[in-house]
Specification:
Number of strands: 15
Helix content: 40-55%
Number of domains: 3
Pfam family, one: ILVD_EDD_N
Protein name: YjhG/YagF family D-xylonate dehydratase
Domain Dihydroxy-acid/6-phosphogluconate dehydratase N-terminal: 88-394
GO molecular function: 2 iron, 2 sulfur cluster binding; xylonate dehydratase activity
EC number: 4.2.1.82
Strand content: 5-15%
């Protein structure tokens, strides 16, 4: 016998051939009535047969059907051991939340359904071509989630369980579009940091630190083994995953004090049960997503995001959620206004000033604790409805005097020795500690459409006493992240340089994250004296003078794509006013005004090495074109169907007219 067949097919087992070809079927009778048979669509009737075929008791078929969607990944044994790994810890344990929610639904007489759309890991794909699918995946997953919801026409409500960078935003976008349905988000929680060791952000710099002689191979191996101290939950820092959980709660889509809970622990599991009760309550009382997601709710989410100092990636996700909900899409002016008005109150990784992991933010009171301070400042709309069945104001009244708040905050102090008021600070305390507002939007002759920087994450040592970061330096230009990382490891990036990474926006890479660069610069001694400019985006854990989302992107003809090595660039970021500028101001020995620089750039060709990455998938090329037609990154990289259709129709008409001209008799004369 052929060795391949023998290996693949394995040994013969005669018992496997004892096959039966029919079965009695489930016992009992479907709870049908004449009215149901006369008026229900055949799909509804056949669905009942499918349900008992899967083992549901016939007498329990008529309960309210609740769909539980999640981003579950991997296959866990009953004891939690891995049978097949997921892509990340964030989706490894969320099946436990699905189970608890399902048991709660059935305990209330409902019929739970479950479906899954797993998600990638931005940490796993850093520096790889996997990153080219990261942001586009969000739109794809939201589409599939919506299709799954609509494909169960008998559902009465939806519970969405998600945790990480793209899966949770996709879930929120999908549920936001279900205007007439009761729906709720169950944040998937966080993983714990090791008792002794590093967080999941810093550990991603072991290659760069080893190249600079800061750690040994053995140290890297030891630290890397222990970094994910518990098997489930999002990373321990306030990156995109944690920021998305915070925003879900701030929007009123998730229950109070549900963001950032410790994965796998009883308080985390209880959130799923509470959420099941909430969606049942919403259905009974006629409350749907359109009642929760309003312009005021979106504004509240922006305010809370600013108070936390959340990831700049939420500037892509909150507008997309607003679009799906039919709300007004916030623009740059809105973000600037909010960030100027709202003080940052949370001391957390990676922003500081003290680098508390996200579990401590949860223990200090999480989102509702921050909202108590914001309420006193008059920065929240307290009349908005929430999935907790009350207005935001009533929800905060409950939180302020709750046993949960008292006991959780007390435990942080008694067990970890951490004062909760040093993690979530009052505005007065935050001002004394020097916490500054979060996001600034520099413009200039290099960024005529704008750019984004997490201004709060610039190292205070390089900020002037007046709160302004100033850097005039020469550009070192790269058209691939790999080349830029190699330059750092080889010592070719030095203090005072301005590192320019171009062609990595939507059209070049699907707008990849460049955390390899930002993390390396953060943990190398000269890194705080280097400014990074790119048309790509950053991981939520990124820190430093890192300016991304530069528009227009290089491949769309943006001025950043015309820079050359040695060009002089003037960067100014005011952390107090959140104003900033990026200007090309010199070449060689010649320095000139920003206006003159703009004229020179306009006359320059694009960088000769500028091109879309050769590994860019066709799927991502299509995403880039669709989101560009929809308004691009400043509208959240959404699919605006009306705009896309209008663009396609105009293009088809232009092509038809062009063909007609070439085929007309006069054109051939």
């Amino acid at each position: 016998m052929n060795e391949a067949i023998r290996f693949i097919m394995g040994p013969e087992d005669p018992e496997h051939y004892d096959i039966y070809t029919h079965a009695a079927g489930p016992e009992g009778k479907l709870p049908l009535t004449a009215d149901m048979l006369l008026n229900l669509p055949s799909g509804d009737l056949f669905g009942l047969s499918q349900n008992v075929g899967m083992g549901w008791k016939p007498e329990r078929l008529l309960g309210k059907q609740i769909l539980i969607l999640s981003t579950q990944g991997g296959v866990r044994g009953e004891d939690g051991s891995p049978i097949a790994l997921g892509y990340h810890t964030g989706h490894w344990e969320v099946g436990l939340l699905v189970k608890e929610a399902a048991l709660a639904v059935s305990g209330l007489g409902g019929v739970p359904f479950a479906a899954y759309v797993s998600d990638p890991c931005d940490g796993r794909s850093q520096g790889t071509t996997g990153m080219f699918d990261s942001l586009p995946y969000r739109n794809d997953a939201a589409i599939v989630f919506r299709r799954l919801i609509r494909s169960l026409p008998t559902r009465s409500g939806v519970i969405g369980v998600g945790t990480c960078d793209k899966g949770l935003p996709a879930m929120m976008i999908a549920l936001a579009a279900m205007h007439d349905l009761p729906a709720i988000i169950v944040p998937g929680g966080v993983t714990l940091p090791p008792t002794v060791g590093e967080d999941a952000g810093k550990i991603q710099t072991i290659g760069a630190r080893f190249s600079q002689g800061q750690i040994t191979v053995d140290e890297a191996a030891d630290l890397g083994c222990r970094v994910c101290a518990t098997p489930g939950g999002g990373c321990q820092f306030l990156g995109t995953a944690a920021s998305a959980q915070v925003v879900a709660e701030a929007l009123g889509m998730a229950l109070p004090h549900s963001a950032l809970a410790p994965s796998g622990q009883p308080i985390w599991l209880d959130i799923a049960k509470q959420s099941a009760r909430a969606v049942q309550w919403m259905h009974a009382n006629g409350v749907a997503m359109r009642d929760i997601l309003t312009d005021a709710a979106v504004e509240n989410a922006m305010v809370v995001h600013a108070a936390f100092g959340g990831s700049t990636n939420l500037l892509l996700h909150i507008p997309a959620i607003a679009h799906a909900a039919g709300c007004r899409i916030p623009d740059v002016a809105d973000w600037t206004r909010v960030n100027k008005a709202v003080p940052r109150l949370v001391s957390v990784l990676p922003n500081g000033p003290d680098y508390h992991p996200t579990i401590r933010v949860f223990m200090a009171g999480g989102v509702p604790e921050v909202m108590l301070h914001l309420r006193k400042l008059g920065l929240l709309n307290l009349q908005v409805k929430t999935v907790a069945g009350v207005s935001l104001g009533e929800q905060l009244d409950w939180w302020e005097t709750s046993e949960r708040r008292l006991e959780i905050r007390k435990r942080l102090l008694t067990v970890d020795g951490i004062d909760p008021d040093e993690v979530i600070m009052s505005p007065e305390r935050a001002a004394v500690r020097g916490l500054t507002s979060t996001v600034a939007f520099p413009t200039g002759n290099l960024a005529p459409e704008g750019s984004v920087i997490k201004a709060t994450a610039i190292d205070p040592d390089v900020v002037g006493e007046d709160g302004v970061y100033r850097h005039i330096g020469q550009a070192k230009v790269f058209t691939s992240e790999k080349a830029a990382v190699k330059a750092i490891k080889d010592g070719r990036i030095q203090e005072g340089d301005i590192l320019v990474l171009m062609g990595r926006g939507p059209s070049g890479t699907g707008m990849e994250e460049t955390y390899q660069l930002t993390s390396a610069l953060k943990h190398l001694p000269f890194g705080k004296h280097v400014t990074l400019l790119t048309d790509a985006r950053f991981s939520g854990v990124s820190t430093g003078a890192c300016i991304g989302h530069i528009g227009p992107e290089a491949l769309a003809g943006g001025p950043i794509g015309k820079l050359r090595n040695g060009d002089w660039i003037d960067v100014r970021i005011d952390r107090n006013t959140l104003d900033g500028s990026l200007h090309f101001v010199g070449q060689g020995d010649a320095l000139f005004s920003p206006e003159a620089g703009a004229s020179i750039l306009a006359a320059r060709p694009l960088h000769p090495d500028l091109a879309a990455d050769p590994a860019l998938p066709d799927d991502t090329k299509l995403w880039a074109a669709l989101q560009a037609a929809s308004g691009g990154t400043w509208r959240g990289s959404i699919y605006d169907v009306d705009r896309i259709v209008e663009t396609l129709q105009a293009g088809m008409e232009a092509l038809a007219n062009a063909r007609a001209r070439t085929q007309s008799p006069s054109a051939n004369d």
